[in-house]
Structure formats: C-alpha cells, structure tokens
C-alpha cells in the first residue's frame, strides 16, 4: 500500500554545504544539528507519489498557460515519471542533506533533465506544495481506513447475525441490568463505527480543496489557472484564500479528532473483549490466533491483541493533542512548526490500520459461550424491570409504585437467596395481592428479551431486522 511505505534507516547528514535549492545568499552550510532538526525526509518521503502527481499537474498547467514552454513541460513530466518508477522500484536514494521529499525529487529531476527542472517551481512554493501533497495523501488514506472500518463492521455483522437470540446479561455500571442478546450488543458497535466512517467522510469532503497556487503565502503574479490544476488533481476547487491555503491544518486535526473518537470506540470494544474472555466471565473464547500463552502459567490464554488495541488507541489522541498544540499559537502563514504535522498523521493512520485489522480478526474468530452467558443471567434479578412492567400492564399499577413493589420482592429473593422465578406465588402475593401466576412467564430472560420489540430494542426479531438494515446501510 502506497501510503504505508516503511521509513528508511537514518544516515547522519554529513557534508554541510549551502542548500542548492535555497542557499543562494548563504556562504556556508548549516550546523550539523541544524541539518538534523530541519530534516524531514525520513518521514515525508511517504508523500512521494502525491508530490509527483501534483508537480505534473502544475507543470502541465504552466505549459498550457505559456508560463513555461511545452518542451520544458514535457521534459518535466517525463522526468517525474522516471523518478516515480525509480522510487517504486527501490532504486531511488533519498538524501537527508536535501531536507525533504520535495527537494529530493526536484534535485533528481535536475540531474535527469537539467535546467528545465528549475522551471517547475515557477509560481509555486514548498508551502503550497506540501499542503497539497498532504491533503491528497490523507484523502487516499481515509479511503483505505474506510475499507478497514467496513471490514470490521462486516465481521461484527456476521457474528451478530449468528447470535440474534443468544442471551446474555446487559450491564449498567458493569452490574447485570436487563437481559439482552449478544447480537444486539455487537450491533451497538456497528452503529458506532458507522458514525466514525461518516465523520471521516465528512472531514474528507472538507479537505478536498486545493492549496496549490497559494504559492508562498500571497498568491503569484504569474497567470496561473488554479481551476485547471484543481480539476487535474481531483480537488473540488482551489482554496479561496492563499494565506489560509498554506497555513490551514484543521483538515489534519479533523482527521485526528475523528480518529481519536474511533480509537475510543475500539478501546471500549477491546475492554469488553478482555472482560468477556476473562475466566471469571467466560462469555467468549478468543482464538489461539489472537491470544498468547504465558511463559510461566501453562493454563493461560491472554487477550493480548485486545489489550494492545486498548492501549494503542491512546496514540490517536496523543497525535491529535500533539498537532493541536503545535498549531494553536502559530501566526499566519507558514511556520516550520507545521513540518511536524505529518509524523502525527502518518502514525495515526498506521495505528488505525493495525488496530482495525486486529479487532476484525478477533471478532471473526471469537466464539461466544452460551452456557456461561445464561448462567450469568441467573445473578442480579435481571428480570426485575419486567416484573415491574407486568404490574403496570396487567394490574394497572403506576410505574413508580410497581418499582417499589418489585423492590420488596427483590429483597425477599435476596433473603431467600434465590432468583425471582424461584419465589412462590403466595410469597409474591403477600407483597402485592394483584400478582397472578402469569407473572412467571415475564420472569424468564428469554421472554423478557422477546418482549423488547420497540424500534432499536433487543428482541431477536428486531436484531435480525437491524442486521439486515445495517448491511444495506454500511456494507452494500
Ligand atoms: N518540509 C516542509 C514541511 O513539511 C516543506 C515546507 C517548507 N517550507 C518552508 N518555508 N521552509 O513543512
């Protein structure tokens, strides 16, 4: 995958000499540590494909507007194509002395086609160049992440469909609250991930404006056609203000904030998987493929993948926080601080791919343990709400009173150390005479679940329909 190429080992930047791209008025080169702190090519070489694409569009526009000759335009395009081939076949060596990906590519172009290479940077600056490349890169990355999210949704949908009537306790405060189905629980995550996808699409749509042509900050005196380059690069339109064009990074922050929320969702699911897979719960068994054994305790099957998803999701918020702090005090327009943007975004994209794939694998492989789930339904008087609802429905008791009566019945069951359905009818009638033997049917978790047919409710029929709808909405 283009957007995920590995970074290279870092050779020290050796010969300090004045920079061939901007060092005209410099008599000497940078201090070694200056070169080191300034160098970003280890990170931003991942933009090579977008950089070449944008440069080709820019050169074609310059040629078509007569700003450079057709011949130079063609030489530039051919040279850039060759460089793309060199990079993709691993023949290109990025030089740390040339600072960043943009100057590496331009220097190679000069070596290949000579002086015409120097005309490519007409009416352009690295400021609008990098902002353009980065948007193109991130829009592609969002496409890949969306596919990974859809894959995780599919894994959840497949499990949910198999378990539309598998009973388990639903929790509030991590205390058994009301019976639900396992399928219903998993479908909650399908919805969350659907919103995550929509947040990312939303960010992508706003991102789809082109900075190129903003030049350094003020626009240019050359007769460029920004609509032409925007169209060639697939942007909706050129950005309307050149200062904003080179200094906006809210597109990256929107991505990182959406990624942080997505990470929070994955972390919650990971946490539930850890709880469910714990021997004390035993609700699910994770596959060998997504767990590890212990080197000392032979019985262990640890949920490491879930734990790492939970932990790694923190990096996403870390990236958002880092870039936000980088940006918050910067005056317009460009400042070198902004070079730090890419490391955060690239890292977040890599983390997302890793944790989404690990989560999809775990979800596909996990096997729910119906016996343990049903056993857990016996604890916590899980159908108490159903008892109260029955009093409202069958005996016309106001809900507040029904709640109170049910509380007394729960206390009696606690005293007798039995479940609600093990109390005798006489015992219950002593608390409220309106209770009849019909009550026993609502005390069964299975019936409680079946009765919750409100839209979005946990009844198996509703969950089945929700799975069908969700496939249409999210998978297609
Ligand atoms: N490598 C730089 C970055 O990523 C490119 C822009 C440099 N612009 C400048 N004015 N020095 O931000």
Describe the structure.
42% of the residues are buried. 60% of the residues lie in helices and 4% in strands. The radius of gyration is 31 Å and the shape is elongated. Helix 3 packs antiparallel against helix 4 and helix 7 runs antiparallel to helix 10. The strands form three sheets. It has a two-stranded antiparallel sheet. Strands 3-4 form a two-stranded parallel sheet. With 476 residues, the chain is mainly alpha-helical. The protein is built from 19 helices and six strands. The site of arginine has 10 residues, from helix 6.
Topology:
Blueprint: H1 32-38, H2 41-44, H3 48-64, H4 70-88, H5 101-113, H6 126-162, E1 167-172, E2 175-181, H7 182-207, E3 209-210, H8 226-233, E4 237-238, H9 242-247, H10 250-277, E5 284-285, H11 304-328, H12 341-365, E6 367-368, H13 370-377, H14 384-395, H15 399-416, H16 425-431, H17 439-442, H18 445-451, H19 460-475
Parallel strand pairs: 3-4
Antiparallel strand pairs: 1-2, 5-6
This protein binds arginine.
The tally of strands reads: 6
**SSE succession:** HHHHHHEEHEHEHHEHHEHHHHHHH
Instruction: Tell me the β content.
Output: under 5%
Instruction: Using the CA coordinates, give the radius of gyration.
Output: 31 Å
Query: Which residue ranges are poorly predicted, with pLDDT under 50 across at least 5 consecutive positions?
Result: none
Shape: elongated
Query: Mean pLDDT, rounded to whole units?
Result: 94
Count of alpha and pi helical runs: 19
Hetero groups: arginine
Q: Helical proportion?
A: 55-70%
| Structural class category | mainly alpha
Specify the biggest β-sheet.
2 strands, antiparallel
Terminal CA distance reads 24 Å
Main sheet: which strands, in order across? 1-2
